[in-house]
Amino acid sequence: MSLNQTRSEDTVDTNTEREAPAAQAAVPVLQARNIKKVYGKGSEAKTAVEDVSFEVAKGEFVCIVGPSGGGKTTLLRILSGLMPATEGEALFEGAAVRSVPDRVSIVFQDYSRSLFPWLRVNKNVELPLRVKKVPRVERAKRAQEVIEAVGLAGSERRYPWQLSGGMQQRVAIARALAHRPDLLLMDEPFASVDAQTRFELEDMILRVRDEFDVTVVLITHDIDEAVYLADRIVVLSTSPSTVRELVTVPLTNPREQAATRNDPEFASLRTRLLGLVTR
Ligand code: ADP
Ligand code: MG
To answer: Which of 132, 155, 236, 265 is deepest in the core (most CB within 10 A)?
Structure first.
């Protein structure tokens, strides 16, 4: 990867006075470089993503917001290594993404299809640790830790079908966190639950992000959700998507549903984003 090499040489050149860890911290966790995706060929060809570039620094919470059908899921599949781009590339911690990196976890909108109905909550959560051959006792300990972090203590022995939709999505998030990823990629994770549950899940993911020190990229079509959660927002255009604007959210942390949503900054930002998304 010539681009890649150029980049790391640049980093070394400009940081010769600094210690190694500082130089490493400067590499973005995720980079999207001129990503384009065309589905199909010839007269059937359909461009879903036109040209998307942005970077995510370690520890950031970035929301990608855009209209339905705008190419958000397409973009997430490319960023996570589930699908190649037609042009451009995604980089995770400086290396080109060719398959899902070990330190990346994905949470999808459809929790009902991401959990195994015949496995209890704790066994669903332990699954990625089993795949990685983590010893049994350690597996159980780590699963318990993330189950508690997502607010599911007491439900360890239940089956997914005994849980509400919101609780099932908590299980999927616990499983995604079990092996302590550096980056959590989420595709409209709260779009299929009722409004009250969505608020609870939003607050849970903010807490979990602090507790596990994980970088989060969350895709949503919901502008209010993006403003509430994000440190920074990537605003996508209608299909085929380009980046309309990168917006830094000026709200204070920690966020709090009533207070944050009543903040005049919240209202002015959502109005601005609405104009950008629908333009
Ligand atoms: P979003 O997640 O923003 O709703 P998608 O990425 O799912 O958008 O879809 C973007 C566009 O690409 C849509 O027009 C959709 O029909 C099209 N598309 C998505 N997946 C495929 C596919 N596998 N083959 C052909 N077209 C697709
Ligand atoms: Mg989608």
So the answer is: 236
Q: What is residue 227's predicted lDDT score, i.e. its pLDDT?
A: 98
Report in angstroms the alpha-carbon separations of 44 from 38, 49, 116, 120, 179.
10, 16, 36, 44, 41
Among 74, 219, 234, residue to substitute to test ligand 1 (most atoms within 8 Å of Cβ): 74
Q: Which DSSP state fits 214?
A: -
Measured distance CA(34)–CA(180) in Å, rounded: 29
> What mean pLDDT is reported for the chain?
92
The arrangement of strands across the sheet holding 241-248 comes to: 95-96, 87-92, 30-39, 46-56, 241-248, 232-236, 61-65, 215-220, 183-187, 104-107
Tell me how far apart the alpha carbons of residues 38 and 78 are, in angstroms, rounded to a whole number. Answer: 12
**Contact, 160 vs 192, CB < 8 A?**
no
Beta strand 241-248 pairing with 183-187: unpaired
Could you tell me the pLDDT band of residue 111, with boundaries at 50, 70 and 90? confident
Scan for tokens 């972090």, then name that residue: 149
Distance CA(185)–CA(173), nearest Å, equals: 10
| Spatial distance between the Cα atoms of 138 and 126, rounded to a whole number of angstroms | 10
| pLDDT tens figures, 55-64 | 999 999 999 9
By C-alpha distance, which of 190, 264, 241, 272 is closest to 76? Answer: 241
pLDDT tens track for 232-246? 999 999 999 999 999
Q: Cβ < 6 Å from ligand 1: which residues?
A: 39-40, 46, 48, 66, 68-74, 239
Q: Give the C-alpha separation, 250 to 241, whole Å.
A: 25
Q: How far is CA 9 from CA 2, 26, 104, in A?
A: 11, 13, 25
* pTM greater than the 0.70 cutoff: yes
